[in-house]
Design goal:
The protein is 56% helix and 4% strand. With 171 residues, the chain is mainly α. It has a single domain, classed as dinb family like domain (Four Helix Bundle (Hemerythrin (Met), subunit A)), CATH 1.20.120.
Length: 171
């Protein structure tokens, strides 16, 4: 399965509308692969050192934004896998700021982060091909809220669009 419909309201907490409203009506796989190239092109188009400077005091650097995107995609993918497999236990939330702080993305070469992002996306796509469309509607609980694997999968490219726009506009 490489294409599946966007989630309907009620399949996810309302605060994810921020990300899901940004999704163009596209094939999931095409969008996911396109985003890999867009990200690599953006980082390669910038001058050396760009990726290590925040746009304002207290903000993340582009490398930290990229690391945050990778971490979030891993967490969303894990949640989707759990619920697709029938997990009935609630999964915890996560606080993004300690994740970024503890990851020390500033010490990781940007080439490694870009390769990691691409590997995560390709792993996501291979996972999706193994799933029956019927499991996409399983309802699980993450961070105290009901959510489906379908919604979790689509939040991933929406989250990307949100942060990619910030990278392009503010950095």
């Amino acid at each position: 399965m490489n294409t599946f419909s966007l989630p309907k309201k009620g399949e996810y907490p309302g605060y994810y509308d921020t990300y899901l409203s940004k999704i163009p009506d596209e094939n999931f796989s095409v969008l996911a692969l396109q985003q890999i190239e867009e990200l690599k092109n953006l980082f390669q188009s910038k001058e050396p050192g760009w990726d290590s400077r925040p746009y304002a005091a207290g903000k993340w650097t582009p490398k930290e934004v990229l690391g945050h995107m990778i971490d979030t995609e891993r967490i969303m993918t894990f949640r989707a896998l759990c619920f697709a497999r029938g997990e009935s236990k609630a999964l915890p939330g996560f606080d993004q700021d300690p994740y970024v702080l503890n990851a020390r993305f500033g010490q990781v070469p940007v080439e490694n982060l870009l390769a990691d992002f691409e590997a995560q996306r390709k792993a996501l796509l291979t996972l999706i091909t193994t799933l029956s469309e019927s499991v996409l509607d399983n309802v699980g609980n993450a961070n105290g809220n009901p959510i489906t694997p379908r919604a979790l999968f689509w939040i991933i490219p929406g989250h990307f669009i949100h942060h990619f726009s910030i990278l392009k506009e503010r950095y």
